[in-house]
Amino acid sequence: MTGSFVNAALSPALRQAAQGVDAPEDPWPGFARRERRHRRTRLVRTALAAAVVAALVGVQTNVVPLPGWAPGIAVAAAPAALLDAPPRGTLAGDQDWLDTLRARISTDTPSGGGWNPDGAWRVGDRDRIRLLYGSDRPGHRVALVAVPLRFGLLTREALVWYVGPAGAGADQMHYAGHSERDDSPVVTLMRTDPDLGGFAVVLGPADSSVTISGDPRYTPGGTLEYENLARADGSGAGFAVLPATPLQHEPVVRVSRDDHVLYEGGLGGGPYGPTVDPTGPEMDALLTAARRGTRGTPPDDATLRTFIESALQHSRLPAAGTTVRVRWSGSEHGRAAALLTVQPTGGGVIAYAMHGDERTGWWVDLRLLLPAEGAGQRPIGWRIRADDTTRTPTDQVRVIAPPDAARVTVTAGGRPPATVTLDPSNAGTTRIPPDQPATFTAYAADGRVLGTTPLPPVEADMSGLPGDSPATRVNP
């Protein structure tokens, strides 16, 4: 069979079979169309993302402004106890004065006032600027305002003080400070002026009481009193007129509600005169007098100077006119330790127990305000803390007997009095379960009671002065 015959016979059949087969379409044109569509979609998405990023960057950097009323992300919140209270002070009802101040604040750049040094934040909605406190006092007009700020999408609220002369218009007020703490329900301002005199303002929650205390006084009866500087200026607000000369001590602010102390601390803004000059002649005289009658291992001069200086600073007493006596000296945890007493002229007696060294630091183990009468005849004890970072109170108690004591007993937990063994320095140790109250009694050789003193609870917070809390005084 020849090839031509085969071709002639098969060609019609092959053509008919080929017509019945669906040949696939060329895929390239379809692929090219889809790829162009996907490319356009990607370009549109990239452009939109770039536009959004550019807009966010512009907003965040304040290049693209947002209206002050636009919502934002709050990064800090001023204390609700202050923001939710009604405006206080004599300027609270002066709407025209407040409107003028609002307009001035909203047009001023915060960086020009000192409370936004990098200039990143801008004043938000001016209608939300609120007066929290405003009043006239001798020589001064003082106002505290809450200012909404915006940095792009971020928002926060600043509490800013403004001060001017008494009766000042809003355009005469100038920046005087701002609140740095968002967690404190109390804001304070203190200013001194050699011509107009100084003042202090304290603003707390509307239902709180404010006291501003000056120099402390340890009474002969063993109580602590303060010079009261504050004057009532509405609920939760206090104002004090201060002398133009530097104060000897930093005033102490206390804001409380019923019996609960909301805030207690020093009133910053000095200057204050120095309390203790460690190199002055008064300090040298204290060192010499303090060593008289010392029992135990005498501390070196540097250690004793540190102990005395710490006690004077803790009690806010000057070196001049204060009597210091070392009741006992020895060691604790291998470091120098001492029990000493300080007494201002005509005042009560404060007992301090301390230990430490230059390498590990210095620790106050006890501070206890005693009545002046009979203070030298009292036994004094304090709990020894663990020698680690926790400083956890142990069941070991150190007891120092008065010089004339023949013996000392301890009464604890309802048990009969137990005798404390004393060494030649009239010091001893005993064990009392933690948190269990106890009482020490000193007896003379003839059996007379010389003095009785309770074991004070361990202080968790030493921010106040001796006598401020029941843990630091003998009298209720």
Walkthrough of the structure:
It is a single chain. The N and C termini lie far apart (135 Å). Strands 1, 2, 3, 4, 5 and 6 form a 6-stranded mixed sheet that branches. Strands 7-8-12-11 form a 4-stranded antiparallel sheet, with no helix packed on it. It is extended and about 135 Å long. By secondary structure, it is an alpha+beta fold. It is built from 7 helices and 25 strands. The chain has helices at residues 3-19, 27-60, 80-83, 95-107, 110-113, 281-290, 301-315; strands at residues 73-74, 122-123, 130-137, 140-151, 154-164, 174-178, 187-191, 198-203, 209-218, 224-228, 230-232, 237-242, 252-257, 260-266, 322-332, 335-344, 349-357, 361-370, 380-385, 393-400, 407-412, 418-420, 427-431, 438-443, 449-454.
In short:
With 476 residues, the chain is α+β, with helices and mostly antiparallel strands. The protein has helices spanning 3-19, 27-60, 80-83, 95-107, 110-113, 281-290, 301-315, and strands at residues 73-74, 122-123, 130-137, 140-151, 154-164, 174-178, 187-191, 198-203, 209-218, 224-228, 230-232, 237-242, 252-257, 260-266, 322-332, 335-344, 349-357, 361-370, 380-385, 393-400, 407-412, 418-420, 427-431, 438-443, 449-454.
